[in-house]
Design brief:
319 residues, mainly alpha, three-stranded antiparallel sheet, 6 strands
């Protein structure tokens, strides 16, 4: 009898172990705003405090400074605009004076960087080959709006965008377990995939713009080049932002593969190619385009010796 009781006890323990992850997801989901919840300050901060410590840090600082962080949401759902709110408030946080940028690099760490001499980014626009004029080329390089930081602050402004896009990518990647716990459907997961695909491309674009700016400066304005690559605080911020951003891209790729199992449980067949992410259910096919071709083009370009040398100077490598 005792032997049977021990066997039953062991079996029940095994069953509870199997059920524990599901139970924890359900408990976590119950504590959080729903997947379609409206954006209120309380809901936004609840989500950030649980999943995105970096985003929470920035928004807390900006709320304390008197910012209306809800202006980025337009009264819609949290998931539709939370990445944008984190991105834009990071910009606001970073600028306290025109000749200095406070680069937030994660883990509650900020690196203040005084600017050295620069030239406008659009001066180098025509030197970028047409095949590399991707999604953000006109907005941030060739045809910027008046007084856009990425133009008037040269490499310092370009890295401000690099930092902000890293923050928005970090926010979306961090929300993967939230989407899963909330049993998000395809229409909701498209928000996650779209933001991650855009964020992944932004990594390649802004890293390339920074390296190209400095390579162009090296050849046409060596004083500007020496001032920036000799700015230790700038180099340190670049190293930390670039490294963490690359890790976020890799994590997204792993999570995208894991999504196949998530969708399978909902009755979807999912297919991921370089060009798209598609799902099929009941003969209905839905999909999202990807930027893989442009992303790889830019990465390939940055493997050229002249870009590797500039990256090496910024990253503290002897190349």
């Amino acid at each position: 009898m005792k032997r049977i009781q021990r066997i039953l006890a062991g079996w029940l323990a095994f069953v509870f172990l199997l059920a524990a992850p599901v139970a924890s997801y359900e408990a976590e989901a119950a504590k959080m705003p729903g997947i379609n919840a409206k954006a209120t300050e309380q809901n936004v901060m609840k989500l950030l405090n649980r999943y995105d410590k970096d985003g929470a840090y920035i928004l807390k600082k900006q709320i304390a400074a008197g910012d209306d962080v809800l202006r980025w949401f337009s009264g819609g759902r949290i998931i539709d605009r939370i990445s944008i709110a984190v991105h834009e408030e990071t910009h606001v946080y970073s600028i306290r004076r025109m000749d200095e940028t406070r680069y937030y690099v994660g883990n509650q760490k900020t690196i203040p960087v005084r600017h050295t001499a620069v030239f406008r980014t659009k001066e180098m626009a025509s030197s970028i080959p047409k095949r590399l004029r991707t999604f953000r080329y006109n907005t941030y390089v060739a045809k910027p709006t008046q007084n856009l930081a990425s133009d008037i602050q040269g490499a310092y402004g370009l890295m401000n965008e690099f930092m902000a896009y890293r923050m928005s990518m970090n926010n979306t990647v961090a929300l993967y377990p939230y989407y899963k716990a909330q049993h998000a459907d395809w229409d909701q997961w498209t928000v996650y995939i779209n933001y991650c695909e855009n964020g992944k491309l932004a990594y390649a674009e802004f890293k390339y713009y920074i390296l190209h700016y400095l390579d162009y400066a090296k050849r046409h304005n060596p004083g500007v080049y020496r001032g920036i690559v000799g700015n230790r605080a700038f180099c340190r911020a670049y190293r930390m932002i670039e490294k963490s951003y690359a890790k976020l891209n890799a994590k997204y790729e792993k999570d995208l593969k894991r999504l196949k199992e998530v969708f399978a449980k909902q009755g979807y067949q999912m297919q991921v190619t370089d060009e798209s992410v598609t799902v099929q259910k009941d003969w209905k096919v839905m999909g999202i385009g990807r930027f893989t071709a442009d992303y790889r083009k830019l990465l390939k370009e940055m493997k050229k010796e002249r870009y590797r040398r500039v990256h090496g100077r910024l990253a503290g490598q002897h190349i």
